[in-house]
Prior knowledge:
This protein folds into two domains: 16-244, Transposase Inhibitor Protein From Tn5, Chain A, domain 1 (Alpha-Beta Complex); 269-330, no CATH class. Helix content is 40%, strand content 20%. It has 13 helices and ten strands. Helix 10 crosses helix 13 (311-323). It is globular and about 70 Å long.
Amino acid sequence: MYQLPEVVRQVSASAFCQCRDKIKYTAFQEIFHQLTDQFYCNYQHKRFHGYRVVAIDGSIYTVPKTKETVKEFGHNILSETGKWIKAQVSFATDVLNNICIDAIIGAYKENERVHAAQMLDNLGSDNLLLFDRGYYTFDLLRMVLLSENQCCFRLKKNACKAVMNFIKSDYQDIISVINIDGQDYKIRFTKLRLDTGEEEYLCSSLLDMNKFTPNIMKDIYKLRWGVEEQFKDMKHAISVENFVGKKVNSIKQEFFGNILTYNLAMMTCKPQIERLANSRTKKYKYAINKRALLGKIKQCYIMLFDKMGRAKETITELMVIVSKESAPIRRGRKFERSKTFKAKRKYCTAHVSVN
């Protein structure tokens, strides 16, 4: 029965799924966290005034609809056919090093602020945390301040009474005091005027106005866009929503496995590729083509671990190929944002699973 060589023997889909189901998704989650910890402990990484800049944000992922997934993520039908439901996902992203530090996938109706509070324990201290408008609450602000981290929240106009009073005032940048459950906390309110003429309001714990001027505060908050880019990379370059398994354990395996793949690419290849792309004097500085890198990593993922003796050679070849696809950075270009429409779900027939 088993006359074929070992390397070409195949197993049935049923046998594969049964074996795979014996591995808990927490194994992938633990490896993901351990890899991240090892990187920050053993390798140089970019910081901003001594802080690791971490943007926290949420997104919606689509997952297959089964009785098990409905129980886990809620009954939130996404498509007309009723084959897909929604799950709430949150990332904590090191925007200077393009690394996902922590991630949560949960029920669609779970609050993003609750996810952010859960991730604070895994982030440690000495971080500069960036939040969008929906995150500002007294409870989350207090939790961040007590965690020995710095923070910067973008504010809604009606976020609280102190914010509304600041907006009405003539002050552009002030240090104020907010009382939360009888305890006073010093915070800073800053008004920023965008190129469009619109005003933006920030609440931060960076109280040194000479060191962190309003222009620097504006640049700091712009860094938050890195987490949005990471969501885009995950959905379109990694194809994270093309789940192969339909069980909750399988979905979470693939979720954390894909993040692990992304981080491996950013940690091992991205810095070296950017050095290769900018090794010669050119008119523009060149940035890595992340989609090309992630596509190549997925193609040779199994080879990296199956043939460890050739891993260094494989990575070197990969970096040379991807460096030739780097794109020039042209500063000052602006484009009007086009109208967005709900796109139909696309199926990736050439999907390469990383698990």
